[in-house]
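Possible regression after last week's pipeline update?

I re-ran a chain I had predicted before the update to compare outputs. Posting the input and the new output here so someone can diff against the archived version. Not blocking, just want to make sure nothing changed silently.
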Amino acid sequence: MMIAVIKPIAYENASPEARAEYERQYRINGTVTNAKKTLLHHLPSYHAYEEWHRLREALLQFISHRAFIVFCYAISLEGDSLLNSTYFRKSLTDRGENPDELLLDDEELALEQYGRYLASKPNAVPNALFSHLGQYYTPEQIVALTAFGGQMIATNVFNSALRIELDEYLLHFTT
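New output (post-update):
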């Protein structure tokens, strides 16, 4: 089990601004994750990472929720992020799917491949893959996918570098 480099902030020790964000997270989600509690040590960083949610909403305007999960899972697996790959593994399992035996349609396959390239070889994304994505997405949408992918990678880096501990509800979903 990994030990967090920075312990999550305790509500009682948080600044009034961090407490307000903590309470907002709890109202919205019913919990405050270890990653969010860690980010709450520095509010500008917390707010920057919260943009992930706005980008997600933009993507869900033109891709399915399943395709979104596949994209995030691919980025997190390729980026070797235990926390995020476990989170998206849980998301797939909650949908009744086996994350180890996903059947992807052609669009999801393009997203899965793109996510893996973004996380490991962004300078080597083949033109054929951009053509494949172009069958499903406009240039504006490919920009949105890429921007979100970058945010997902940043989230993976944050969680992995600081060794954010898995939240209790994720422990059952590790491989």
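Follow-up from reviewer: compared with the archived run. The two ends are 13 Å apart (CA to CA). Marking as no regression found.
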